[in-house]
Amino acid sequence: MKKIVLYILLMLGSSPFLKGENGPMSQNEQQDRIFSFFSDIESRHEEKLWLHLDKPYYAAGDTIRFRAYLSDAMTLCPDTLSNFIYVDLFDRRNKLISSKKIKRDSVGFANNLYISDTLSAGEYTLQAYTGWMLNFDPSCFFQKNILIGRTASDIRTDITYTDKDMMVIRFSDKSGSPLFGNEASYELFDRNGKQLSSGQQPTSPSGALFVTLPTDSTLNGAYAETRLKLGNGTLYKRTFFPEPRTASFDIQFLPEGGNLVPGTPQIVAFKAVQSNGYPAEVRGAILNSAGDTIARFSSEHDGMGIFLLTPQSAETYRAVTFCDTLSVSTPLPSIHENACALTVTQSENNLRYRILGTAPEGSVLIAHTRGLCHFVHSAPPNNPEGLIKTDSLPEGILHLLLADSSGIPKTERLVYLSRPQEQWQVTQDKPSYGKREKVRIDITVGKGGQPLEGTFSVSVTDANTVKTDSLSDNIRTNLLLTSDLKGYIHNPGYYFLDDSPARRHYLDLVMMTHGWRRFKTDDLFHPEPFTPKHYIERGQYISGYVSTAGGKVAKQASITAFAFNKDNVVGSTVTDSMGRFLIEGLDFQDSTVFFISSKNKRGGRIPCEVKADKLYSGLKFKPLHPFFTEDSLRSRSDDLQRYLASFPKPNNDGLGEYELEEVTVTAKDPNRPAVAIYKKIIDDTARIAKFGSMSLEHYIKFLPGVVNNGDWISLRSPSGFSYPAQIRIDNEIIYGMAQLYRFFAKEVDYFKLEVPSIMNPPLTPRAIFWDNYPCRLHIFLREDVNGIRNFVVYRTNGYAKHTEFYHPVYDTPERLANKTPDRRTTLYWEPYLRIGDDGKGTIEFYTNDKDKSRLEVVIEGIATDGSVCRTLQRLE
Prior knowledge:
Blueprint: H1 2-13, H2 27-43, E1 47-53, E2 57-59, E3 63-72, E4 84-91, E5 96-103, E6 109-114, E7 122-129, E8 142-149, E9 156-162, E10 166-172, E11 183-189, E12 195-202, E13 208-212, H3 216-219, E14 223-229, E15 235-240, E16 249-255, E17 266-274, E18 283-287, E19 293-298, E20 304-309, E21 318-323, E22 326-331, E23 340-347, E24 350-357, E25 364-369, E26 372-378, E27 385-389, E28 396-403, E29 409-417, E30 423-428, E31 438-447, E32 450-451, E33 454-462, H4 475-480, H5 501-513, E34 540-548, E35 558-563, E36 570-574, E37 580-586, E38 591-599, E39 608-612, H6 630-644, E40 678-680, H7 685-693, H8 696-701, E41 706-709, E42 712-716, E43 722-728, H9 731-744, E44 748-754, E45 776-781, E46 791-797, H10 813-816, E47 826-835, E48 840-846, E49 855-862, E50 868-875
Parallel strand pairs: 2-8
Antiparallel strand pairs: 1-3, 3-6, 4-5, 4-7, 7-8, 9-10, 10-13, 11-12, 11-14, 14-15, 16-17, 17-20, 18-19, 18-21, 21-22, 23-24, 24-27, 25-26, 25-28, 28-29, 30-31, 31-32, 31-48, 33-47, 33-49, 34-37, 34-39, 35-36, 35-38, 38-46, 40-44, 41-42, 42-43, 44-45, 49-50
Helix pairs in contact: 7-9
């Protein structure tokens, strides 16, 4: 890891961009600098990340299964340097719900995220990234909005708004009948969680709860938490996010090539967006300074469109745009006499470009795909047109830039280069299947007549209950399109359904209305310096720094880290000249607490302060995509309700959620016995040394206040009262305590052993076990004379354990006759489906309890040659 970071810093330090310029450069020097710019981009090893989920939506109590594809951002090959990824789940209030750190195994990254059965129904965001990706724009993180429903109720909701600043929430049962006369309440909060208002009322005859709303400015980002008490005492909860009642939209006008060039007919693209982030369908007219209409326009697809304009010098233009009953007036970009613009016309394997206006002397045309530079051609003013052969260029966004002799781009154009998609054959062994019947599916994939090899992920779901949205983001749309463009792209899957002329035209509208975002190209000769703040996480590590009591750098200090868990991870190092330390080669799972201690280079204890870096925690979450509107939620509600209906209903055994009257407990049990013992540790190395060789179990048994009962110990309070509970001495705990004393004997002041107080019924000798009850061992560490500790208690996240998907096998009469209902919606999930060099693979599984199975098969992955592959097929 050190070598990689050093290499990057050396590359930056030795870059020719940082040298002074003496006189004009030759064409070769100019090209060398541009190629060096892209070589520098390549040396940063930027990454892309995509998560293939087993389903498009989930239920509370469900499990999100995923396979993560981490690839090089330039080549899309999975030969990345990071060996860990982080997966977070946020709600719409930007609150972190759950998080996991995943370690790369021998094949890749695969795991799951459990959804608590108490989680409220609503829309959530799944975010994933690596530690190295934190050095770049967070907009390049993986993000996906998912719906999570609840199975505990058949309640339906609907929202409308009145003209009197009122949100009306109507509750009904599954048949549509209003829930009248039920006690309901709400609390309204702003985006920061500050309560704005609250109320309680019975539902109206139409099942309505009325929520008074503040102004639109205060409402932006607000949410309402509602509670509905049903007749049987069950409580229904849901959070609603009011939409601004004042509709608005925004429109941008973007000339092809970025500039309006006077005296030349030119295409101008536009994109209109509603205030909620979704496309707005618009129409309008272009007016000159005299108010004359010189062009008309209307959106063609998802708020985008184009029109033709011939700009005139010293003229100004504005657009009057209408969206339903709303209208806005927007100025068009200014016209500059010396402007130039790059226009393109695409045909099969050919790209013809033309430079409008006059290119500056010494200009060059540059083409790259995801940072992979293809060519740098001179573009003399007397030769404004050219032809680019694209048959050998990779699929994705081709970024064309026309730069002047000083490396400043004057105009640019994005073009999407499509390639023939891979061919899939997904063949089932039978025409139809019944209950609990074995299914065999043979899979073949190839491209251009040649088989594709790789490790893919496959999800087989019940098509009766799970409906995948073919227009949503997927591995192909993300890695090849959306991850490289600024802004939100609505229904990106639409542009990859086929290669029809209409779809190619709409995809070109996307190219003209979204800019490049992966890295900055403002100045090709003087790129933005890149100083990574986070390491490439090849392995787990702890970093930080040590300072003396006077705030000076503690050089050559000895650092030791100890993890108080069953693995007892230990590492040590020495601080550098800046007082920094890095302990590498660690390997630990789940949440781990480290004790990090420092000593001087002679091994003595020094008054200093140890601080450890926080690694990838507390990230500020920013949604990249708009959440569903109420209208879009309604269109998906049927699919989600069908999915939720496949889950078992809760039992009517009193185990539902009930609302109780509030109570406050203030008294303490006077008969509660003492539950702690204390032992001072003498600060004498000679006396403490014996604990390193003797059994700590033996040591604990003979402490004052401890009654030795063989394999068990009883605790006696200082007053002599004998506590009746007994605690089993756990070998792993004893071993961990011994290691702690061994490494931190001089820092330990005293410890406290705490057990629960359970008096009724009386405890039996084997009633309390260390693993099953909240027994706690508190370690109190010594404080330095100056109030500065030469240690730090550091908590960090370890990686999650590997999980495997279980699916039942009905291969015997006994298993086939099992009476446990099989309601699986994900019938099969394999994150590591191996497709051999012949392009073939096979999966086998069993159907659920449906009489007639309909299957939906989704396969995603990256082939060994870097081809991004995906197929969605439905089988009977």
